């Protein structure tokens, strides 16, 4: 391309839009360490206590919880940052999906639930996604859904994740569009949604299973 266009070779990619990229022999590691450290500073959560889970699974969030209104602008900034972090952190996808439902009219309880995600990030800022060469490619996929998990409209939440072995290549957590009348119907919708992710996930897995380039080859 340099023979056809006026471009400059900047070498290997190391940092791009908050993503830190480390490329090694047959592997690429993507993390958001700096972004994970900077985001809590904006909300005064630097010295927060660590926790093992991103949210309390025994308490359901609802629109009207009687705890009073929170600052909507700060809440949207907080959740927006968490959404960006969820690009390489599958384990917070569900909790971020839940709190993002209250962007227009958040309460103090919603704000507290969103802040709880940062207590999980306090001790795993170095976590990321490792994409490496796979000698024996085997695509693994996991799907699940609750039934009527949303207190306000009784809609279910779908979730899926796909991995070729090491690392993870695609994941999702999203509230279903329709209200289902049974848990089996909620599962059917989730299976259909996950099948749409299967082909892209398989293509990405096949790329990771190709032969590593020999030094000197193009």
TrEMBL record:
Q: Which CDD domains match?
A: RNase_HI_RT_Ty1
Protein's name in the database: Reverse transcriptase Ty1/copia-type domain-containing protein
Organism for this UniProt entry: Solanum lycopersicum (Tomato)
């Amino acid at each position: 391309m340099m023979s056809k266009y006026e471009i400059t070779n900047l070498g290997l990619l190391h940092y791009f839009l908050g993503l830190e990229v480390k490329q090694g022999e047959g592997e690429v590691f993507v993390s958001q360490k700096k972004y994970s450290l900077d985001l809590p500073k904006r909300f005064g959560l630097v010295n927060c206590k660590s926790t093992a889970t991103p949210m309390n699974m025994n308490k359901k969030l609802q629109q009207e919880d009687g705890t009073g209104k929170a600052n909507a602008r700060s809440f949207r900034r907080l959740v927006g940052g968490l959404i960006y972090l969820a690009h390489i952190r599958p384990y917070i996808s569900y909790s971020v999906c839940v709190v993002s439902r209250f962007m227009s009219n958040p309460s103090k309880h919603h704000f507290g639930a969103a802040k709880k995600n940062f207590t999980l990030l306090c001790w795993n800022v170095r976590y990321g996604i490792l994409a490496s060469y796979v000698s024996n490619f085997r695509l693994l996929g996991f799907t699940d859904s609750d039934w009527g998990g949303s207190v306000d409209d009784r809609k279910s939440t779908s979730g899926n994740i796909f991995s070729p072995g090491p690392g993870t290549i695609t994941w999702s957590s999203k509230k279903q569009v329709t209200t289902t009348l049974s848990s089996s119907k909620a599962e059917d919708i989730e299976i259909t949604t996950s099948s749409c992710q299967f082909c892209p996930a398989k293509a990405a897995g096949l790329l990771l299973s190709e032969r590593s380039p020999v030094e000197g080859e193009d």
